[in-house]
Design brief:
The protein has 246 residues and is mainly β. The chain folds into two domains: 141 residues, Methylamine Dehydrogenase, Chain H, CATH 2.130.10; 91 residues. It has no helices and 20 strands. The radius of gyration is 18 Å and the shape is globular. The N and C termini lie far apart (40 Å).
């Protein structure tokens, strides 16, 4: 039997994520304000829409992530300045909105990530990053104090180092990468010194190696990849090289 190369989503699908157990895939649909949910066959990789096939989000959802324990899913809603939070049935993968269904973010939220210990969630907004404490039993988010910390201009992506001590944010409007020390007890972020390091033009994606020694940033306008050496004691980055795509 021939399997389809594609399958239907909602209108203008954007972000996508896969559960750590490999059984579920979720896609945010920017125009239709929904999240598509699929069961994944772990033998073939083929997706099948769940029932229901979609759940409601806020306005203009753009990014989605799932907790490592597989119990919670979060979606940034760039048009309503909120983050939607869902409980995930670990047997079926089906999502149910938590109560409350959304929590406030800053203006125009975009990227979202969860710390490896599952206790903190971070969201990039227009010139700030929102920081939340996550209840590991219920998944419900509560804003930390302070609720936001400053970034560079137009932050885009956000990631946490595997040891949980550092957070990095790409600033697409100022061609920099913000670097923060994370308090592993409270989750609260503090800017490092220096607070930013230079990137190429219009940085977007950011990733930290699993051993914590390297950080990589994609620069969409300059068509390059910036690579940094990370001090595993302090988290501070040093630009090692910028390579192009040729």
């Amino acid at each position: 039997m021939t399997q389809p190369l594609t399958l239907a989503t909602g209108a203008t699908p954007f972000g996508v994520t896969i559960s750590s157990d490999g059984t579920s895939v979720y896609v945010v649909n920017y125009v239709s304000d929904t999240l598509s949910q699929y069961t994944r066959n772990v033998s073939t990789g083929i997706l099948t829409p769940m029932s229901p096939a979609t759940v409601a989000t806020g306005a203009s959802p753009i990014s989605v992530t799932i907790s490592s324990d597989g119990t919670s899913v979060y979606v940034t809603n760039s048009g309503s300045n909120t983050i939607s939070q869902y409980t995930r049935n670990t047997s079926t993968g089906v999502l149910t909105p938590m109560s409350p269904a959304t929590v406030a973010t800053g203006a125009a939220p975009y990227g979202v990530t969860i710390s490896s210990d599952g206790t903190s969630v971070y969201v990039t907004n227009y010139n700030t990053i929102s920081q939340y404490t996550r209840n590991v039993s219920t998944g419900i988010l509560t804003p930390m104090s302070p609720a936001t910390v400053a970034t560079g201009a137009s932050p885009y992506d956000v990631t946490v180092s595997s040891d949980g001590t550092s957070v990095y944010v790409t600033n697409s409007g100022s061609d920099t990468l913000s670097q923060y020390t994370r308090n592993t007890s409270t989750g609260v972020l503090t800017p490092m010194s220096p607070a930013t390091v230079a990137t190429g033009a219009t940085p977007h994606g950011v990733a930290v190696s699993s051993d914590g020694t390297s950080v990589y940033v994609t620069n969409s306008v300059s068509g390059t990849l910036s690579q940094y050496t990370r001090n595993t004691s302090t988290g501070v980055l040093m630009l090692a090289l910028e390579v192009d795509d040729e």
